[in-house]
Design a protein that fits this description.
Shape: globular
Number of helices: 11
Largest sheet: 2 strands, antiparallel
Order of helices and strands: HHEEHHHHHHHHEEHEE
Strand order of the largest sheet: 1-2
Strand content: under 5%
C-alpha cells in the first residue's frame, strides 16, 4: 500500500515529480507533431495545442512547487532520457515513452494511455499511480490536510509570463489553497477531461472562482476545447486523420551518428535544449522579473530548437534505412562559446532560419552580465578566483545554477 503524502517536504518531493512527469510528455508529443508532413493539418494543429498545454501544465506544477517553498529542477536527472518508463507510473502494462513519428498505433498505445481518465471511484495514488488524475488527487489530499500554512514560498519567484497560448488556459501564480486546487484542476481537466465528457471543463462558474484569478473561460480565446484524451481519440478513430508522416528515426541519439555535420547539428539541438532547461531552472526563483524569459527561455524554444528540428528531419539517417533524423531532446550541455561557434558554422551548411542569431543572443543574455569571463560548462560546478580584483556580478547570472562562485583572498560585490 502506498502511503499518503506525509508533510511539506514530502509534498515538495511529489510536486517535483509532477514537474518531471509533465515535462516528460512534451518531447514525445512535439516529436510526433513535427513528423506530420502538413504542419497546418487538423492532426498537427491538435497535437500542437496539446504540446502547448503540457508546457502550461509543467509551468503550473513548477509554480505549485515554488509556492510551498520548493525549487523546481529541470536539469540533469530531472531531464527525461528516451526511451524511459513514465515516471512513478505503475499501470497494468508498462508504459514506455519514446520519441517516435506519429502513427495511429503510437497514439493508441502511448498517448491515450498517458491521458487516460481515471475510473469513477478510483483511489488517490501518491506513487505507482494508474492515472495522472489519481496522482494529482493524492497531492490535493495533502494540500487539504496541510492547509494554507504550507504556502511559504515567495510569489515573486513564480512565472506567469512566457506562455504563448495556442491552446487553452492561463499561467498564473499559486498563492493559497484555492489557487493551488485550481491549478491542479486545470492540469487534470485539460489532459484527461472527465470519464465521459469530451470538452475539458476548465471554464469554472465565475461566481465560485476566486476573484483574484483570471482564466480564459474554456480554450484559446474562449473557444470550447477538447481535452487531450479526446483529441487523441479523434486521431485513433479516424475523425482527425494523420495524413502523411515523415519517417523520423525512433529515439534518435547524437551518439548513434557518425562524426560529421549531421551529428554536430544533432548536438546543437541538444545544446540549445539543455541551455533552455538551465535557464528555466534559473527563471523559477527570480520570476517574471528575470530578463532570461524573453531573451533566452522563449527564443531558444521557438527560434532555435524548432528550426534545428526541422532541419534534422530533412536529413537522411545515414544507415540506408530510409529514415530521417530527428531531435534527440537529450541533456547534453555545451560550453557557451563552443555553442556559439557551432551555430554560426552550421548556419552556413543548413537552413536554420533564425537559429544562429537566436543562439548568439541567448548565449549573450546568459553570460553577458558577468564582469569577467568564465567558460560555462555543466560538468564544472565551482569556479575559483585566485587573488582577483573586486568583482561585480548580477544576481540573475550568479544564480544561473551552472557555477558557484568562490573567491580566495578577495571580496565579491553582490
Amino acid at each position: 500500500m502506498i502511503e499518503p503524502i506525509a508533510d511539506v517536504e514530502d509534498l515538495r518531493r511529489h510536486l517535483q515529480w509532477a514537474v518531471e512527469v509533465e515535462h516528460s510528455t512534451i518531447p514525445p508529443y512535439e516529436y510526433a507533431m513535427w513528423s506530420v508532413v502538413d504542419p497546418d493539418s487538423a492532426a498537427a494543429t491538435s497535437i500542437k495545442y496539446v504540446v502547448r498545454e503540457e508546457m502550461l501544465h509543467a509551468a503550473l506544477a513548477a509554480n505549485l512547487l515554488t509556492a510551498v517553498g520548493g525549487k523546481p529542477r529541470f536539469t540533469d536527472d530531472a531531464v527525461p532520457r528516451y526511451p524511459e518508463p513514465m515516471r512513478h507510473h505503475d499501470p497494468k502494462l508498462p508504459l514506455v515513452l519514446h520519441l517516435a513519428p506519429a502513427s495511429v498505433d503510437l497514439v493508441r498505445q502511448v498517448f491515450l494511455r498517458i491521458e487516460q481518465p481515471e475510473e469513477p471511484g478510483a483511489r488517490p495514488e501518491a506513487d505507482h499511480y494508474e492515472t495522472l488524475a489519481q496522482f494529482y488527487e493524492a497531492i490535493v489530499g495533502a494540500l487539504a490536510r496541510l492547509g494554507d500554512e504550507v504556502f511559504t514560498g515567495d510569489p515573486r519567484a513564480q512565472v506567469t509570463k512566457g506562455y504563448a497560448g495556442h491552446g487553452g488556459g492561463t499561467l498564473f501564480a499559486v498563492t493559497d489553497l484555492d489557487s493551488a486546487l485550481l491549478a491542479i484542476e486545470v492540469i487534470v481537466e485539460q489532459g484527461e477531461g472527465t470519464h465521459t465528457s469530451a470538452p475539458a471543463p476548465v471554464g469554472f462558474d465565475s461566481t465560485t472562482r476566486p476573484t483574484h484569478l483570471k482564466l480564459e473561460p474554456f480554450g484559446f480565446q474562449g473557444a470550447p476545447e477538447r481535452a487531450h484524451y479526446w483529441r487523441f481519440l479523434d486521431i485513433v478513430e479516424g475523425r482527425t486523420p494523420l495524413g502523411a508522416v515523415h519517417p523520423m528515426r525512433l529515439d534518435p541519439s547524437s551518439d548513434d551518428l557518425p562524426d560529421g555535420e549531421l551529428r554536430e547539428l544533432s548536438r546543437l539541438f541538444d545544446a540549445c535544449y539543455s541551455l533552455q532547461m538551465n535557464v528555466m531552472e534559473r527563471v523559477w526563483g527570480v520570476g517574471d522579473e528575470s530578463p532570461l524569459i524573453d531573451s533566452a527561455m522563449v527564443p531558444l524554444m521557438n527560434h532555435a530548437e524548432k528550426p534545428i528540428a526541422l532541419a534534422l528531419l530533412r536529413e537522411a539517417w545515414p544507415d540506408g534505412s530510409g529514415e530521417v533524423a530527428g531531435p534527440p531532446f537529450a541533456w547534453d550541455p555545451m560550453p557557451l562559446d563552443d555553442m556559439r561557434r557551432l551555430a554560426r558554422r552550421l548556419g552556413t551548411l543548413f537552413d536554420l532560419g533564425p537559429t544562429v542569431e537566436t543562439a548568439w543572443a541567448a548565449v549573450d543574455s546568459v553570460s553577458g552580465a558577468f564582469a569577467f569571463t568564465l567558460p560555462i560548462e555543466a560538468p564544472v560546478r565551482t569556479a575559483y578566483v585566485a587573488n582577483p580584483p573586486t568583482l561585480t556580478l548580477t544576481s540573475d547570472t550568479l544564480a544561473l545554477g551552472l557555477y558557484t562562485i568562490q573567491a580566495r583572498s578577495a571580496a565579491l560585490t553582490l
